[in-house]
Amino acid sequence: MTTTRINRILALTLAGVLMTMMAWAQGDKANRPSPPAVASGKVKDATITINYSSPSVKGRSVWEPSGKLAPYGQVWRAGANEATTFETDKAIKVEGKELPAGKYGFFAIPDEKEWTIIFNKVPNQWGAFKYDQAQDQLRVTAKPKKSAQMNEKLVYDVTNKGVVLKWENVEVPIAIQ
């Protein structure tokens, strides 16, 4: 074998190894700018689990009408990357309305004075690009309020009263019974 041929084989092998490593790294969701997160807890006897990707504010405009991350009046995936999912192992009441046990795509339509919270029958979606209102299981409204502190990263808390979405200077409590 000539040196040129050996070098060519080594170069191709190295390129293959590098491409495999890059593909593997892309599949590691923990390394994303908006890493995956889970909020879980009990509300009465129901276990609630929220799977979401947690974006950061990074000095960007989030909520204002000109906000690029979650603009007012538009369906938002309530996180980043894949749509947020909301799962309950028992039927619950959200803001006084029945939601059967199951796993749902969790979306929101933010606004300054009132948010629409959406539980969609299609849990596994990428973003809100293929969101279909006809697949909504339940829509409720919730009142946002000013957060006591700045929340750089989006976070969900499951409390004994429901779920609270916190991001930037906004908190949205969603009552669950």
TrEMBL record:
InterPro entries: DUF2911. Residues 1-25 form the signal peptide. Keywords: Signal. It comes from the Bacteria. This is DUF2911 domain-containing protein.
